């Protein structure tokens, strides 16, 4: 008779996601993961060779989902749609958003990651980097600013700004409210480097665009 494994790798990954989302990377010790699942600690090592391996696996799952949400809009040259995808993804995947967006990868993967997983992490990072590069390339004929400024603005509008708006809601473990999308849209309208030059005139001491 074939004996099926009682605890799958996915169960341990989900427990890791929950622990990091609740208490940060330090909360996800091997003993804590085992307790969360209700499994003996040794059973984790049958599936993951180290704590860094299980954390890297959890990061890969979250980042792949995040990248899948953003890359279509980035490759289509749609910066606002990509930024709005950040909040939409966080609403659908709150635990994964807390894991991925509230923790730097260096904190999550501070221990050496097994080489095969390390290569997969690099490959997964490259997916989003390449999509962002494709977005920047699509904007070159429209953006009148210098490349470093254009890149910094795009990174802020698509990633850093939306994530900063999400942060207090993720910390509170509450659903991101709809008004964040309005704020992101207003931010793009105000800071988009692709809009035509504005002529500034003075009227009664006020600047009028």
From TrEMBL:
Domain HTH tetR-type: 6-66
Binding region for DNA: 29-48
Keywords, in A-Z order: DNA-binding, Transcription, Transcription regulation
Location of region: Disordered: 187-209
Keyword Zinc-finger attached: no
Gene3D superfamilies, sorted: Tetracycline Repressor, domain 2 (1.10.357.10)
PANTHER family, per database record: HTH-TYPE TRANSCRIPTIONAL REGULATOR BETI, HTH-TYPE TRANSCRIPTIONAL REGULATOR RUTR
The name this protein goes by in its record: Putative transcriptional regulator, TetR family protein
């Amino acid at each position: 008779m074939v004996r099926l494994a009682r605890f799958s790798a996915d169960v341990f990954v989900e427990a890791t996601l929950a622990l990091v989302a609740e208490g940060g990377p330090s909360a996800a010790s091997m003993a804590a993961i085992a307790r969360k699942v209700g499994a003996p600690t040794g059973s984790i090592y049958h599936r993951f060779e180290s704590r860094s391996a299980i954390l890297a696996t959890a990061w890969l799952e979250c980042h792949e989902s995040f990248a899948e949400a953003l890359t279509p809009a980035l490759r289509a040259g749609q910066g606002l749609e990509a930024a709005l995808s950040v909040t939409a993804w966080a609403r659908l995947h709150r635990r994964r958003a807390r894991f991925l967006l509230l923790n730097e990868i260096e904190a999550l993967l501070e221990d050496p990651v097994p080489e095969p997983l390390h290569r997969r992490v690099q490959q997964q990072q490259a997916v989003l980097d390449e999509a962002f590069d494709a977005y920047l390339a699509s904007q070159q004929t429209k953006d009148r600013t210098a490349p470093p400024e254009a890149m910094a603005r795009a990174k802020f509008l698509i990633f850093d700004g939306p994530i900063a708006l999400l942060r207090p809601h993720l910390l509170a473990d509450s659903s991101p409210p709809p008004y964040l999308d309005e704020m992101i849209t207003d931010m793009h309208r105000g800071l988009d480097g692709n809009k035509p030059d504005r002529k500034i005139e003075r009227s009664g001491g006020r600047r009028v665009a």
